[in-house]
Amino acid sequence: MAGGKGTRLNLKIEKPLLEINGTTIIDDMIKNLLNSDIENIYIAVSPNTPKTKKHILENYSKYITDSKNVNNVKIHIIETSGKDYVNDLGECISYFKSPFLTLSGDLVNVKSKTINIIIRYYSNICKKNSDIEALCVVSRIEDYPATPTIDFEGYVPLGINIVSPNENYQKEELFVLKEPILNINTMEDLNIVIENDIYTS
Questions:
Q1: Nucleotidyl transferase domain spans which residues (predicted)?
Q2: I need a labelling partner for 65 at 20 to 30 A (CA). Which of 24, 75, 139, 151 fits?
Q3: What radius of gyration, in Å, describes the C-alpha atoms of the chain?
Q4: Please, what sign has the CA dihedral across residues 21, 46, 101, 96?
Q5: SS3 for the chain, per residue?
């Protein structure tokens, strides 16, 4: 999900293109997705993030246009209205026929091994309980290294979810991560990432 305005950060750059230690957030995320078990990557951009869309088209063209190599992970761009996160996610649902993983476009330190762990956990719980449709990845509030914008009964939603492609109520499971994954919403968040060297290597 890379279509937000990023107004709280108050910078003149689109948030997915924010560089930390010489790497943009979107490049770091794509790198880790490419190295994970994910088969296809759908990047939702909007009128709020035209430079992000251009960056993806210019830097990942071989994944977007190369249909000859069936082993290549393909990157697809979805155009959303950019109204807000929930609305944009709703516009993405029609592209999927089975549950899909969503990542906010302002997350740092999402490693490929973590992505794989989340996918396998979801697969295992669905085998045990067929009623489970969705997964919300959270951190315990005491483990979250920044000031959370949401306190969900002692947990902080990290902006990582598995969602079923329907718009009805979905029975959801929580998955607690200990890794220091942050949403870069404010300058305070950005400074914490830089000062504590919280970034994917």
A1: 1-84
A2: 24
A3: 16
A4: negative
A5: CCCCCCHHHCCCCCHHHCEECCEEHHHHHHHHHHCCCCCEEEEEECCCCHHHHHHHHHHCHHHHHCCCCCCCCEEEEEECCCCCHHHHHHHHHHHCCCCEEEECCCEECCCHHHHHHHHHHHHHHHHHCCCCCEEEEEEECCCCCCCCCCCECCEEEEEEEEECCCCCCCCEEEEECCCCCEECCCHHHHHHHHHCCCCCC
Domains of the chain (ranges plus CATH)?
7-195 (3.90.550.10)
Q: What is the β-pairing status of strands 172-176 and 134-140? A: parallel
Per-residue tokens: 153: 């009964």
Give residue for tokens 């490049």.
27
Q: Compare 170 and 74 and report the one with higher pLDDT.
A: 74
pTM: 0.88
Q: How far apart are CA 41 and CA 47, in angstroms?
A: 20
Assigned token pair, 200: 């994917």
Written as six digits, the tokens of 166 are 């329907």
Percent of the chain having pLDDT more than 70? 93
